[in-house]
Amino acid sequence: MAIVPQDPEYRLQIDGKTSYAWCALDTLFIPPLIGKTVNVQARDPINSQGVSLVVDGNGAREVTPPSAVVSMVIPDGPFGYDVIESFCHKVLFFASEESGRSWVAEHEGTTLLTVQEAFEVGRFAPEFVYPDVFGQQKR
Question: Which among 14, 95, 108 has a CA at the least distance from the CA of 56?
Fold first, then answer.
């Protein structure tokens, strides 16, 4: 039985099946980990505009709208039991820089990245979140 976020903001289509993610970064680092091409659907939390993209091991493409950005927060230590509240609820897709800036202005410690920059950050997420599993791998 899969755990589905209460109000899933991130839908992933993988091999014709729907799955869900907790935050924008999940949608960017999971496809390379599983070796699949994933269609991602999200919603801008400010204006409810849809954001879609295709993600695989090479990056994000077909980003719609092309102006989409991702909010990011740099954790100040290892994730604890509150990872969803302290991290996931702050790493979001926005349809435009304008929309993202309005959200970032209200959330201290956050910044905006392009979708591709966020994908690059996501390359290191597994090692940070699960150092015992992924920390030993060489890049």
Answer: 14
